[in-house]
Amino acid sequence: MSHVERPHLKHVLHTVSVLEAVVLRSFGPDGGQVLFTRDTGQVMLSRSGTRILTALRLEHPLARMVVECVWKHTAVTGDGSKNFILLLASLLRVIHTAACKRCNVSHTYSSREAMENATARHLADTLLAFGLEELGDVISTGVVPYGGVLSWEDPSAHAVPAHTNKDMHTLQKLLTAFFHTRLGHTYCDFFSRLTCEFLSCWKCEDKAPSYLLHLIDDNFSVLHTPVSGFPVSCSRVIEGQVIHRDFSTPFSWTNNQPVKAVVFSGHLHPDAHKAGAVLELRGGERGVLRYTSCTERSLECVITTLQSLGVSLLLCAVKQSEAVLALAGLSGMCVVDFLFHRYIHMSFHDSEIKPHSLVICGAGEGQTDQCACAFQDALRMLHTTWEPMHTTATTAAKSILHSGKSRSPSSKPPLQKNVLNPGCVVPVGGTFEFLLHHALLQHDTGIPALSRLLADALLCVPQQIYSHSPRRYLQTQTLVTNYIELRVGHCRKVDFKSDVFTLDSGVESVSCKYKLILAVLQCLSSLLRLDAVLHTHTPLHKQACRHSSSSLEDTEEGDED
Amino acid sequence: MKVIQARRERQDKISKLMGEYLLKGYKMLGECCELCGTILLQDKQQKNYCVSCQELDSDIDKDNPALNAQAALSQVRERQLAAQPPAPSQTHTLNGGPSTSQCSGSVPQPRPEHCEGAAAGLRGPLPAPAVPASAAPAPNKVLASTYPPTVPSGSLSSSSAQHSVLDDAQDAILTKLRWATSQLQSSASVEASIQLCSLIASCAQSLRSLKELNQ
Fold first, then answer.
1. Over 90: is that where the pLDDT of A418 sits?
2. Which one, A60, A231, B97, B181, has the greatest CB density within 10 A?
3. Residue A487: pLDDT above 80?
4. Coiled coil located at which positions (chain A) (predicted)?
5. Do B25 and A57 make contact, defined as CB atoms within 8 angstroms?
6. Residue A432: inside a domain, yes or no?
7. What is the CATH number of the domain that holds A323?
């Protein structure tokens, strides 16, 4: 049996508010950690909003939809999951307030509820269109000039005082601020230095930073080795590659000579004894014996060829047959296949690219896993930071969003492009939100109320950061406003740094923030476009539960709906 | 506007409580409570739980004298304070504060924390009352209904005494009603307003019952 439910605006707001209450306690540099435990004793320690939300037991369809959006966003950007929920809740509140006000005026719709839903949907769609078309320009003109640009030239360089390097700031400040929110004050500097050291080892002159970061992120599972039972400070970067496999045949390396290795992705010896295999015999009574000898001779040929090439190490992605292992052993070759008992450390000499591996240590499995996840998210955050973003949509995208509507005479030309320079950063602590709030209020748009909606919603982030100190909130807001007015008044020729803009206390990426706002607006629009929720009793598709693989939910509950 | 703000505060409280329960391992269901529309939670014993109905509303019950002995004793104390001074001074009780402080030194009143034994007695077999003698009869005579605690006496058998008791009860309730109304007008807290409204509703129900008894 199934029933239909029509989600009302207040239900959506209520659902998101509950998720907001979950992540609020972990929000900000002083946020707490959440320790999840299973009956089996397995623990998960995290301050990541994504991990916390995906570990919750959620059957509510709207809640699952929001968590799915958060997961997808952070899978790309690596950061901003808690900000996502905060901003989404804040936008829903301002839209709810605006919709209620409009309902008091108009009585066109048959019911107040339908009127509120329609108003909210319209506002969300309009906000999304604004975000896709104009927000990038607002950020380029109203936020970027007040920040700085990170340098990729020397990732391992130490911090440079702001007054000696006006616009270029090192990578460490960005990473320190990031790790502070994920791992706390104790290890943020350590992991920041470790990340810079790791990236400097992989640095390649002819490759863009975004390519390198993407490569490392894609292969992070094999480029790092989690080791529990050691202090976090024992984490290090080691030269070479650590393979999470063991030798299937004895290996001896006594003369310290370079080793030639070959990588196999399949089976060297075809296994004809598997269920379902069809063996076609031709020619004579000795067909089976003839087939066996044939395959053995082909294997001997392969091994002989490898031996002639001087190969002494076979790296196999699948488990090889006993015949392969025996022949390889007799020929003096070592095989590494599917066994998983120890680690093998290999280094590569005289190669153009020297791969390095990361050993991440932690007192327990939970802490080690937390550090490893934070490290990978940092790579994604860096990748997003250095990815150039074109901030203005083309005419084709605009026509989809504004079909049937006439363009206002004050709109900009359709193909005007602005590019957010890679590496743009602003100081942490709500500076981005304050700057964008101010820029939106000054922005000349056809719908002033829309800018006001987004501007007001953005302030939720600094309000939460300074929830324990309203005085600091006002101080920061005043500093930002004064800095803007002073800089505009001097036509940007005066070189000075206020307390807010020293960029020494930590920075955050403008690109990440921009992508976050776009993702939130997209999720908001999707939520409010829902006309009906169908409750069925069929099991969920397994693919829909892929983001719950790290959760502590029982798998049985995940299949019910 | 105040109503909207009050609703928002209540919703925020519900959301905060639900967030805490989710972190404790409760499951957020795809269903809503039939009474209040709040999203239902489910614990690990498969028992559904509505935060609004089962937790938030129960906070209001602690000030309902029919359900909470401490509230009942507080009401008795206030009634006695109101009854102690002469009639003109009863008007001061509408403001609450001055007469209370005026009379607090003259009449020894039981403090709510001394009434735990009486509070436990409401829900089970009545133990020996652990309250001072001045308020001792009151918890023993509390009715299991919405009636506020009445003045205990041994003269319920005579109709005139019964009539005076009912009148006294009616006066006490009216006094409390007036006081609650004045507090409600000046209240700036949502929870206090909700509790005062509940008290007013209880007083009205009690008055109706007293009038039925008088008939």
1. no
2. A60
3. no
4. none
5. yes
6. no
7. 3.50.7.10
A195: burial class by Cβ within 10 Å (0-12, 13-18, 19+)? Answer: buried
Question: What's the one-letter identity of residue A66?
Answer: V
Q: Check CB contact of A18 with chain B, cutoff 8 Å.
A: yes
Q: Is residue A92 part of a domain?
A: no
Domain's final residue, options A286, A313, A339: A339
Interchain CB distance below 8 Å, A17 and B26: no
Chain B: closest CA distance from residue A266 (Å)? 44
Query: String of b and e for A209-219 (b: at least 16 CB within 10 Å)?
Result: bbebbbbbbee
Minimum mean pLDDT range among A195-199, A201-205, B155-159: B155-159
Query: If you average pLDDT over residues B112-131, what whole number do you get?
Result: 41
pTM of the model: 0.68
Q: Residues A266, A327: one domain? A: yes
Q: What is the mean pLDDT of chain A?
A: 78
Q: pLDDT for B64-121, tens place per residue?
A: 555 556 666 666 777 777 776 655 444 444 444 444 444 444 444 444 444 444 334 4
Domain residue limits at A231 = 170-242+351-375
- The gap from C-alpha A344 to its chain's centroid, in whole angstroms, comes to 29
**Structure-token match 């056809």, residue found:** A446
Residue A235's Cβ-side half-sphere holds a number of Cα atoms within 13 Å equal to 27
Q: CATH code at A238?
A: 3.30.260.10
Q: Are A155 and A196 in contact (CB under 8 A)?
A: yes
